[in-house]
Write a structure and sequence with these properties.
This protein is an alpha+beta fold. The protein is 50% helix and 18% strand. It contains nine helices and six strands. The protein has a six-stranded antiparallel beta sheet with strand order 1-2-3-4-5-6. The chain is globular.
């Protein structure tokens, strides 16, 4: 009888051992899964800078400018590396110019820059125009020191020997409302949308103004040059190619001497 019990005990022991092993396996998580989960979480957190994976990424200036729905002009700039570089240089020049101005000057510069964007830059329809207006605006901003002043110049009209004193307006659109009033008074159709260049070859009440601008009429848009001598009541306007910088200054002076010199 005793031998039978011993044989039974020896038979049951392996079964008990197997049961204990099974229980332990069921209660302990696989070490491989735990180790795999931790690096994955760390990697996910590192890739998002310590933020949750679903946190939105901050938009950069270029991605905002190139986003769907951007204006035609901004799309042109975004897709052209040279224009994008010019735009960046312009932003730096504007920031540097602001540092030279008092509070009132900063406000005036901001208003001037907004007019330039709306009435000059945004009227461009191709890269060449943008390159020109960017270059002109960069010169204007780089010349800003302790005030927003027009540039003195002395230009020699074609066929003459002596130069004519004039002012190159740093803000060609500062006289836009005045010119549009003159259009109506002289029974001209449409309106001026903006100007790329403007000069004043007189002074005070003797101001003789001229500008190169975009005119919108019922027939569409066209580029024109116009001048006004309000002292003697002279006004002239005619189609002209778009002009920029020193080329515009010479072109406008010749036009003014011919039609509005008094």
């Amino acid at each position: 009888m005793q031998r039978s019990s011993e044989r039974m005990t020896r038979a049951i022991k392996p079964l008990l051992t197997l049961c204990w092993v099974a229980l332990l396996a069921a209660c302990t998580p696989p070490s491989g899964d735990a180790q795999a989960t931790a690096p994955a979480a760390a990697s996910e957190q590192a890739s998002t800078g310590g933020k949750p994976a679903n946190a939105p990424a901050a938009a950069t200036g270029s991605s905002t400018a190139c986003a769907a729905g951007a204006s035609q002009v901004q799309t042109l700039i975004c897709n052209d590396p040279a224009l994008s570089q010019q735009e960046g240089e312009l932003a730096k020049a504007e920031a540097a110019a602001r540092e030279t101005l008092d509070a009132a000057g900063k406000d005036k510069l901001q208003a001037e820059q907004q007019r330039w964007v709306q009435h000059t830059r945004d009227l461009c329809s191709d890269a060449h125009c943008l390159q020109q207006v960017f270059a002109d605006r960069l010169k204007v901003l780089s010349a800003t020191r302790d005030g927003l002043v027009d540039q003195d110049a002395c230009e020699v009209p074609d066929g003459q020997k002596q130069c004519v004193d004039l002012l190159v307006l740093r803000d060609p659109n500062s006289q836009l409302a005045n010119f549009n009033t003159l259009l109506g008074e002289n029974r001209q159709e449409g309106r001026l949308l903006g100007c790329t260049a403007a000069i004043n070859s007189g002074g005070g009440q003797n101001a003789v103004l001229a500008a190169n601008c975009t005119q919108e009429t019922a027939g569409g848009k066209r580029n024109v040059q116009l001048c006004s001598n309000q002292m003697v009541g002279q006004f002239a306007i005619e189609p002209a190619p778009a002009a920029y910088g020193t080329q515009a200054t010479g072109q406008l002076l010749g036009f003014t001497q011919q039609h509005c010199a008094g």
